[in-house]
Here is the input.
Amino acid sequence: MVCPWCFAPIEAAWRVCNKCGKALVIRCVRCATEAGPDTDVCENCGTTVRHRCPTCAAVLTAGEKSCNRCGAKLKDFWKLKGV
Here is the structure.
């Protein structure tokens, strides 16, 4: 497994990446179900819990203008997602 933020190797039981310090397990905003580092859609309610860059698959924060990893412009991506 790899960290969805920095792509460093991680262990399945980790809750925080030991390289970048970001949370590997997050809660769904709709139902509070925990989503692991390899989950982008809540398994309980289907809500998107992580957005990924369409170019390099890095995790994005809603509204970012460009990907922090590859520099891809995200304006059209957010329009498509309705964010």
